[in-house]
Hints:
Oligomer: single chain
CATH architecture of the largest domain: Clam
CATH topology of the largest domain: outer membrane lipoprotein receptor (LolB), chain A
Largest sheet: 11 strands, mixed
CATH superfamily of the largest domain: Lipoprotein localisation LolA/LolB/LppX
Amino acid sequence: MSTGPVSVRAIFFMLVFTPVAWAELSPRDYLSQMSHSFRELDYRGEFTYEYGSSMDTLHIVHVVRDGVEKERLLHLNGDSHEVVRDDHPVGCIHPGNQIMRLGDTAGAPFARDFSGEHDIADHYTLSFGEPARVAGRAAVEIQVRPVDEYRYGLRLFLDQESGILLKSLTVSSAGKILERFQFTRIEIGVPIDDSELQVADGQTDHAYHHMLRQSAGEAAQRDQATAAGWLPPGFVLSARSEAMEGKRPVRFSMYTDGFSTLTVVLEPAREGAVTDSDGKARRGATVAYMRHVQVEGQPYLLTVVGEVPLITAQKVARNVEVKGS
C-alpha cells in the first residue's frame, strides 16, 4: 500500500538522524541542523528568557504551512503582550539569522544560519560538552568559544532527536552568564490547529518581515554614507536599509560573523540633545554604544548595538566613517 510521496526533508532525517549517524556528526553538523529545525518543524512550548536580573516566560506556537512560517509568541508574565509572525518564507534568512525578537526585549538565539556563508571556525572553536537533559529531552551540548575578546561565547543544548535548540547560555570572557534561554516544555512535530495562532484583539504586535535581505555584495554597492572603518575579524556587511525621519534619513548597516551581529544606526539627533559625550547601555548580552556626529553641519546620533562586548561596540562606533548623502 502506498503511503504517498516522501519529502526530501524526511529522507534527510531518516538518513542522518539515526542512533548510529548521530555519533558521527561534528559540532558544525549539529549547528547546521539546528538552523533548519527551528524554522522548518512544527512545535509548541514554554520557555524562559533571562537577561541581567530580569526573566520573561513565554509561550510559543510555530508551524509551517505550504513553505511559510507562522508563529505566535505570548508573554506569560508581566503585561499581557503577544507577537505574531505570518507570511514569512522558510527560505528567508534574516541577517545574522536572529529571526525572532521577544517583543521589546533583546533577542534569543532561536536559530542561526550555519550553512557555510561565514567561516566561523576562524573565529570560534567548537566542541562537544557533556550529555544533558532539558525539558525532559535528551540534549547534546555544543560549546562555542571565541578566539578573541571581541565576541561572546555560547553553550548551546540541542534536542538529540530533532536538532532544535532547547537551551542556550551567552557567556562573557570571564565566564559570566549574560543571557539564558531555556525551554521548560516543548512538543515537537505535533498537530497544531490554526486556532492556536489566533490572538486576542488589541494585544498583538505583528512582527513584519524587515526587508534587509541584500547580499553582502549588493549591500556594499548601496549608499556608503555610513561605513564601519573597523570591524572585528570575520564580521562582514550583510545588509543596509534606509528610512526617513522627517526630511532626514535614518540609515542602518548590519554586520555579522555568522554567530554574532551588530548594527550601526545613524539618525538625526533630537533637539536639545547633549552632543559632547558618549553614552552606553546594556541589557543582558546586548549592548549599545552611542556618540554624536556632524553630517553636513547637522547633528546626528550614531549608535552601535549588538550581541557583542562593550569594547567591540565602542571601537566600531569610534571608527565609523560618516559622509554626507
